[in-house]
Amino acid sequence: MFKRPLAVKRPLALLAAAALATGALAACDSSGSADGKLSVVAAAYPFEWLSRQIGGDQVKVTNLVKPGAEPHDLELTPKLVAAVSEAKLVVYLPGFQPAVDSAVSQHAVGRTFDVAGVEPLAESSAAEHDHDHGPGASPGIGEDKDKKAKDPHVWLDPVRFAKIGDQLAERFGQADPGHAAEYKSRAATVRAELEKLDKEYAEGLKTCQRKELVTSHAAFGYLTTRYKLEQISIAGLSPDQEPSAQKIAEIVAEAKEHGATIIFTEALVSPAIAKTIASEAGAKTEVLDPIESLPEGSSEDYAKIMRANLGKIRAALGCS
Fold it and tell me: For residue 151, which of 81, 215, 243 has the smallest C-alpha distance?
């Protein structure tokens, strides 16, 4: 399970939201939206991007996480609980955001698309101070040494994400049969784009001087496994975990051992520890985006950020 379990707060507010949702549903048609579009709630940005790409003009997508916010820390307002209640379909990843899990179990049973149901999440049982040798990475400080954790960042593997897109199109078609062919067609376009991304990554990372990525938290396990790299993470699966002094010293030593020139930070996470490690290892810092949420006001999208990430990884690893 993921760290920092959160409960949806203010039960009276949730009841009020559900009551409001019941009234709103009466005004909606069978698509779940008053304007006739398929009403979809996405639990985080990657699922919003995929839903919009496949749904096109036939869907109305609500992202539960506002731009610039950390999706792990999501707490649902009554308005967002109402959105879950009203949606024809909720696209989410169980365990990633406990507040969403709670709202779904109370207000959206039978109206969900479980991302992990398409692509089962990879597990890790690495010891506390070991670095990552595949998806999931090592558990963060404070987790049980032998506890298995699951990595939610499946969207960072374009091959897996394409499979999820194919199944999402099928689910859209079930919820809105009149546009099933259009959903399937757009999913084929999305698959082609993701396959192109996969080829770019495979080719771009084929010949590199190094294989080790030093990252703020263990978000890049699927990516490093897909392209035969290795992730050394400062924190575990949760980005706000505080590493011990011993863990920091170990990462500095490994960064020096592998000749790391860049320590990767994230836009939504404090770079302080990464900067300390970079200073001691004689390296620089650079932002590598796990694409959990878009920065506020950003004009970028999933595909653009993935390509920007590739350029940064190539520079960090000395790829030719």
Answer: 215
How high is the pLDDT of residue 22? 45
Give domain 11-122+152-195's CATH superfamily. Nitrogenase molybdenum iron protein domain (3.40.50.1980)
Tell me if 83 sits within 8 A of 77, measured CB to CB.
no
| Fold (CATH) for 203-317 | Rossmann fold (3.40.50)
Q: Where do you find CATH 3.40.50.1980 in the chain?
A: 11-122+152-195, 203-317
Q: pLDDT of 159-181, one tens digit each? A: 999 999 999 999 999 999 999 99
Distance between CA atoms of residues 99 and 96, nearest Å: 9
Burial 276-312, CB ≥16 within 10 A → b, else e: ebbebbebebbbbbbbbbbeeeeeeebbebbeebbeb
Separation of first and last alpha carbons in the chain: 39
User: What average pLDDT does this structure show over 186-210?
Assistant: 98
